[in-house]
Amino acid sequence: MLSRVAASLFWMARNMERAESNARVLESRLINALESSEYGKLATDDWEAVLEICSSVTEYRSMYDACEARPIAQYITFDARNINSIVNCLENARHNARSVRDNIPEELWELLNEQYLTLRDEEFYAWSIRDIQAFLQQTKRLSFMIQGVIESSMLREEPYHFIKVGKWIERAEKTARVLNVVCEKTTQLKEETQTDHYYYWLSALQFLNGYDAYLKRFPPTMEPKHVLPFLVSYEQFPRSIEYCMDHVREAVMQLEGGKVSHYSEELFQALDHVTDEFVKMKFQQMDSADIGPFLDRFQNDCNRLASVFASTYYFV
């Protein structure tokens, strides 16, 4: 397979996963804002967390004055200056798909192209918060449909596995970023209350679509000793970091025919470096402050892994 085809498949998957993840985070935050009477000042004022998860606080503040729901929703959803805005991610995914149409199901291309044509003439700045919420739901549904097409239609050959690597690396990195932000917020609480901690850990589960799954495994209490291992190392939850990295390794093994060759040796070493730490860590015994350094290292290692993967298959 040509390296440019592999790169386009990899980035199509990353862009689509990023669009869905950012849509989920923003939608959850908007819903929590409506329930501010239950969670108090945290739910109305803590919008910086969303920016840290989905984009850049520094970049946002250089463009907007107010750190409020409306401008933040605009920035994350459709601001063309934000490279990680949902609309930009969808357009990039469509651009990636267009260049590899011979390697993906026609239905996948049609879904992305139809969304692009729908958005092309939109007057985004006229959208109300309700319009934005409807678009966020639509983005999640689009992602679900695309994943359904991939799983039900694609041959388990190289294009499929490049898509899988992109998807799972992006998802693992997003889970780590969500946890990093939430852990930082909980350690900064000056007057700790049970309600404050409950709000932040509930938000982490909602941002990662894990609340319902968590309740099936743990009692309805939001404690780090339960939430952290669930989101980091619970092997049955498809957004836990360990689950994602296991699937990255599986896809790479498929690409390499189950063998480590001389040109893929560095890639497998990078994978081992990322995953070996899971064996050493005792997440059930850790609190927010303890896990912060691990999450920082993981995000750096994840970026390096993506870079090594790209160089291994000549993306760059």
UniProtKB/TrEMBL annotation:
Ranges for domain DUF403 come to: 1-313
**Pfam families per record:** Alpha-E (PF04168)
User: What is the name attached to this protein's record?
Assistant: Alpha-E domain-containing protein
Q: Give the InterPro entries listed for this entry.
A: ATP-dep_Glu-Cys_Ligase-2, DUF403
- Upper taxonomic lineage: Bacteria, Bacillati, Bacillota, Bacilli, Bacillales
